[in-house]
Structures are given as C-alpha cells and as structure tokens.
Design a protein that fits this description.
The protein is of the alpha/beta class and 230 residues long. The protein has a single domain, classed as Aldolase class I (TIM Barrel, Alpha-Beta Barrel), CATH 3.20.20. Strands 1-8-7-6-5-4-3-2 form an eight-stranded parallel beta sheet. β6, α5 and β7 form a beta-alpha-beta unit.
Length: 230
C-alpha cells in the first residue's frame, strides 16, 4: 500500500486574499498562467473571525473567470446554512472550522449538511490552538484537513511551526486524505509543511508579492518536491 504522504499530488493554491481585488479576474488568470493548481478563497463573516471578506456573488464571479478548482475556506459561524450558496457559486472544496462545535455530533451534522450542498469535496479546518484529536472520529469522512499555521482572519502573519506536529500526527494515524496548510507559507516554511506530510499548500503574499509569479510557483513546487517524504 502506498504511503499517505504520496497519495495526492502537491498542489499550490494561491490565496486570493492577497491579490488586488480591483483586478481580481486578471489576478486569477495570471496565477493560472503561472502554474497554480487551485485558487484558495477565504470567506470571513466578521463574527467567527474579526474580518469581513467576500460572499457567494464574488465567488461566482471568480468561478466564471477561473479554470482551476476553487478551494473555499469558510471562516464563518454557520457553514451549513451557507454551504449550498457557495457550492452553487462554484466551490470545488468547502472547508469549515471544528471550533464552531462543542461535540463530535455537532461537527458530524455540519459535515453532512455541507456534503449535502452538492460540493465535490469537504474539509475541516483547525486553528493553531485546537487539538487535532478532536476530529479523529471524523477523519474517514473528510476529504481534507486544513491545519492553520496562523490564527485566521488576516493575511501576512508569521508561520507557527508548532502546528506541524498535527500534520505528522494525521499521517502517523494513517490519514489518507489531503492535508492543507495555510498561513505564513513561503520559500522557507513551505518545505517544512511538506516534510511533515502536507500536500496542499496555500500561499498569499509569497506568491502575489513576487516580481515573477511563474518563477515563484516553480520555486515553491521544486522545494515541495525535494521535501516530500517517501
């Protein structure tokens, strides 16, 4: 049987939160031309996190100009309520947060509700302070686990290396889904994520702030390939 570290391809997912929103269609096309795999779309409601970003109408416009899948990260208080709207808008992956729920039953019910929205894949996100073992009973039902390496809500924060142990733990348990890391990923920190077992890598300013998008994505991909465990 193949190692969980090698089941999924390395995916580079630029975070559109770091792009120029006045030129979002151009930015989407630019990172696609540069070789990205997914678009990471952060949705914030000003309640679960202290910031507000975008809703389904903007996601739909991104979908209309994109050819790569939309990885929609819901940092909102009622993911089940809004999942259908985001699925209809074009989300390929919808990820919501474990911290919203006090019990495994609550998480499971929300997971079923998001799955029923018609979205292709469903993931669960963990804030840096959240124990990864909270989601252990649901791992077989999750297409992806998103391990946050910053506290959610704002871009440009520094990477928190202590969360890498969550990624290692997931792979040690035999988790065979995708593991995504988001927050502070750059040329130095991205290889650490891959070495721990992550395969889906979100980067905002490290990509959109680069003078050459194609070169930066190539650099990140090369570093990821070199760091990947056998």
């Amino acid at each position: 049987m193949s190692s969980p570290n090698q089941i999924h391809p390395i995916r580079i997912a630029p975070s559109l939160l770091a792009c120029d929103f006045a030129r979002i269609a151009e930015e989407v096309r630019a990172v696609e031309a540069a070789g990205c795999d997914w678009h990471h779309v952060d949705v914030m409601d000003g309640h679960f996190v202290p910031n507000i970003s975008i809703g389904p109408p903007v996601v739909q416009k991104i979908f209309e100009c994109a050819t790569k899948p939309l990885d929609v990260h819901l940092m909102i208080s009622e993911p089940g309520r809004y999942a259908k709207a985001f699925a209809k808008a074009g989300a390929h992956m919808i990820t919501f947060h474990a911290e919203l729920f006090d019990s495994t039953d609550g998480m499971g019910a929300a997971l079923a509700e998001v799955r029923a929205s018609g979205v292709a894949q469903v993931g669960m996100a963990l804030n840096p302070a959240t124990d990864v073992r909270r989601i252990e009973p649901l791992l077989d039902e999750l297409d992806m686990v998103l391990v946050m390496s910053v506290n959610p809500g704002f871009g440009g924060q520094s990477f928190m290396p202590e969360v890498l142990s969550k990624v290692s733990w997931l792979r040690e348990q035999g988790y065979r889904g995708q593991i995504e890391m988001d927050g502070g990923l750059n040329l130095e920190t991205l290889p650490l994520c891959v070495a721990a077992g992550a395969d889906t890598l979100v980067a905002g300013s490290a990509i959109f702030g680069a003078p050459d998008l194609t070169l930066r994505i190539q650099e990140l991909r090369k570093l990821a390939a070199a760091a990947r465990p056998v």
